[in-house]
Amino acid sequence: MAAVDVSTEMLRKARALTHRAGDIAFVTADVRQLPFPRDSFDGVVCIEVLEHLPNHLEDADVALAEFARVLRGDGLLVVEAPLQPHEDLVARHPDLRGSWKELQDMLDPAAGRQYAERPLGTWLHFDESSVTDLLDRHGFTVLARRYVRVLPSGLVERFPAMEALDAVLEGHAHTQSLAREAVWVAQRTSAARAPGAVSRPSVERAEGAVRGPAGNELQAALETTFTSMAAHAGEVDALQRERQAQQEALEGARRHAEALRVRLERAEADLDETDERRRRAEAAAADSADHRRRAEHGRYEAERELTMLRSTAAMRLAGKVWTALNTALPQGSRRRRAYQRVRSRGQQAAMEAAVSTPLAVQRRQDVVADLLDFESQIRSAKPHTVAVLLCGTQLIESEGQRPTQFALALASQGIPVVFAYWRWDPEEWAAQDRLAESILQVPIDVVLQRPNLLADAFVGMRRLAVFEFPYPGFFELLANLNARGWTTVYDVLDDWQEFHRVGQAEWYDAAFEGHLITGVDAVTAVNGFLADRVRSLGGQEVEVIGNGLSPSVATSAVTRPLERGELTLGYFGHLTGAWFDWRLVAEVARRAPTWKVYLIGYGGDPGGLALPPNVELLGRKPQDELAAYAANWDVGIIPFKPERLAAGADPIKAYEYLAMGLPVVVTGVHPPPGGEEFVVRVDGADEFVDAAQQVAALSDAHADRRREFAYTCTWDQRLRRLLDTASHHGQRVAQKNRLFSGGEHTG
Fold first, then answer.
1. Which positions ≥6 away from 526 have C-beta within 8 Å?
2. How many domains does one find in the chain?
C-alpha cells in the first residue's frame, strides 16, 4: 500500500494517525506524475484532489491517465469530484498554505508560478458528464456512482445528529440534484476485453463497496421515509434556489470582507503615524492628573456658588426668559424640534472645537488588542462566566448608576466584565483603570463597527450580554451574539419612549425596542410599571428586579453639620425639571416655614420659580459625603412629578435613604416591593406635609427596620437574581443552551 501527497507535513500527520505505518509506503509526489511503474496497483482511491489542481480539466485528464497507467488489468478506481463550489478552504484551514508551498518547491519555476497565482483551487468543480467522459477516455467503465453531502456545508459538522438525515437524502432521486459531491467506482477495462464487458467478480466487488448490508438497510429506509417526499419536489426546487441565493450572498460578503481588509490596512497605517502623538498625549495626561483633581474640587465649589446665585433676581429673570421660550416653543412642536436641531449643531461645533484645542489631551486605544489581551488575561484564571454590559453611561462609581453597580458586583464575584460605554465624541476614551478588577472598558461605537469581534470572543465560557438601553445600532450585534450562543438579556431601566417624547433619548425607535424585547433570551425591568409596558410590546416573561444599595454610601468618615429646622427634609440626586417637582418643594416649604429643606444635586434649577428662604441648594457633593449631610435630616424626600417619566423610575436614593435610617416620602414614583411600610407615596403638598410629620415621629426601632430592609436589597443580591433569570427563566435560554451544547459555542 502506498499513501501519496504533495506535502511531507501532511504525510507526517497521516503516519502519526495510523497504527500500521510499517505496512504503508508514504510517498511525496504529484498525482500528475506518479513515481510508480506501470501495472503497480490493484486499486486507486482519489478523494478531495481533482478540484485542487490548478488547470482544472486539463490536469484532471493527466491525473486519470496516470491512474490508468499504474493500475493492473481489471483494477478498480474510486474517485471523488465536487459538483458545487466549496467554501474557501484556505480561510478555514490556513495550514494548507504550507502544503502548496512545498509543491512549488518541487516543481520547475514555470509550474510553480501557477500555484503561486492560484495556490488552492477551492472554487473548481465538475459536472457529471465531464467526469464520465474523462473516465471513458482512459479506458474505465463506471460500475457505480454515489451522491454525497446534500445538506449545507458545516451543518453536519456542527450538529452530528444531522448525519443520518444527510445519508438518507444522498440516496433519494429528488434530493440528489442538491448533492455537493459525487463518488465514482470505475474499473479499468483490459485491451483484450470488449468495451463494456466487465467481470462479474469485479462488479460484485464494486457493488459491495458502494452498497453492502448498510446500503440495503438504507434502501429499505428510503422506501418507507420518502413516499411522501415526491409531493414536495417544489420545496426541493425552492431550497435549491435559496441555496443559490445564499451562495451569491456569500460571494458578496467575500467582496465586502476584502474591502474591509483594505480599510483596516489603511487604518493601521494611520495608527502607526499617530503613535508618537499618542505617546506625547499620554505623557501630558499624566502630568495633568493633579491639575484635574484640583479642577474637580473647584467644580464642586463653583456649583454650590451657582446654586446660591439661582435664587437672585438675575437668575429669576433668566428663568422668566426660559418660561417664555417654553411658551413660544412648546415641547413636541415643530418649532421646538427645529430649535433643538439648531442647538444640537451648535453644541456639536462647540464640542469639536473643544476636542481640537491642545488642552484636551485624549488617549486613543487599540480596542482589538485590548480585547484580545483581556481574553488572554482572564483565561488564565479559568472563569466559568464572562459578561458584557452595553451601557448608556461610562463606569463612574461615584454616580452609582445601575450598570456601573452591576459591573462592580460581577467583578467582585469573579466574573470578568467588558463594559461597553456610550460616548458622544469619537476621541473620548474612558481610562482603562479597572483591568486589575477584570473589567475592560470599550466604546460602544467601536464594538458596533465589528460586532463579530465581540461575538466570537470568550469561546468555551458561559457568555452573558446585558443590553441596558434599546439603541437601534444594536441590531447586528444582537443577531451575532444570538447566532454564536450568547445568553442575551434586555434590562429595562427607564421608559425610553417617554424620555424621547420630552426631548431626550433622540435615538429611540419603538420598533427596535419591540425587536429587542422579543429577540433576547430574557427581559428584566426595575419596576412593575415598566414590566407591564414590556408586556404590551410583546414580551412574554418579564422579571422585576429593582435597583439596589451600595452599602458604602450609608456611612461617611466626615461630618457636615447643617442648620436644622423644626423638621429637616433632604434630597440628593438629579434636579432636572423633566421629573423633579420644583413647585411641590416650594409649596411644601411655604406651608411649613419653620422647616428646613436641603437639596443636593446637579443638572437642573427652579427656572423662574422663586424658592422660599427655608429651601437651601447645596450643589453637587461627593458620594462619600452624602451620609454626612443626611445625618442632619429627619426625612429623605423624592419629590418627582406624577407623570410617566417618574412612574418608570426606581430611585436608588430610596434604598440609600433607608440604609441611612431615614423614613422616605415620595411623589410620582412607587415604593420598592416590600418597602411600602418605609416609603410613603403621597399626592400634593398637603399630603406631603402630613406624611413627613408622621414618619418623622416614628421610633428609633423603626429606623433599624428600615436599615434591615435596605440591606436585603444590595447590588450583590440584585445581581444574583439577574444571573438566575438569565440561566433559568429566559424566553429561549434553555433551547439555545441545548442547541449549542454539542458545538464550540457556549452561552
1. 402, 492, 493, 544, 545, 546, 547, 648, 649, 650
2. 5
42 in any annotated domain:
yes
> CA dist 728 to 543, 723, 735, Å?
11, 9, 11
- pTM beyond 0.85: the answer is no
Quote the cell numbers at residue 555.
Answer: 456611612
In the chain, count H helices and then E strands.
31, 19
Domain final position from 217, 233, 249: 233
Question: Do 194 and 245 share a domain, yes or no?
Answer: no
Residues with Cβ within 8 Å of residue 62, at least 6 apart in sequence:
32
619: β partners: 600
Count CB atoms within 10 A of the CB of residue 328. Answer: 11
For residues 247, 248, 249, 250, the Cα torsion angle rounded to the nearest 10 degrees is 50
Alpha-carbon distance of 333 to 350, in angstroms, equals: 26
The cell 423638621 sits on which residue?
Answer: 567
Tens-digit pLDDT profile for residues 634-646: 999 999 999 988 8
The CA-CA-CA angle for residues 145, 84, 151, to 5°, reads 80
**If you ran DSSP here, which 8-state letter would residue 543 be given?**
E
Contact 539, 523 (CB under 8 A): yes
DSSP 613: T
HSE at residue 361, side-chain half, CA atoms within 13 A, is 16
Domain that holds residue 338: 334-361
pLDDT digits (tens, 9 = 90+) for 260-282: 888 888 888 887 887 777 677 66
Return the C-alpha cell found at 142.
463506471
| 465 belongs to a structural domain | yes
Rounded to a whole number, what is the distance in angstroms from the first to the last CA of the chain? 47
Nearest-angstrom CA–CA distance, 604 and 10: 71
Sheet holding 417-421, edge to edge: 439-443, 417-421, 385-390, 462-467, 487-492, 522-525, 542-544
- Closest among 534, 531, 564 to 545, alpha carbons compared: 531
Asked if residue 24 is part of any domain, the answer here is yes
What average pLDDT does range 719-741 have in this prediction? 71
pLDDT per residue as tens digits for the range 159-196: 666 676 767 776 666 666 678 888 999 999 854 333 33
Q: What is the pLDDT of residues 514-548, one digit of tens each?
A: 999 999 999 999 999 999 999 999 888 899 999 99
Q: What is the pLDDT of residue 248?
A: 85
Q: Which three cell numbers stand for residue 711?
A: 440591606
CA dihedral sign of residues 24, 28, 30, 36: negative
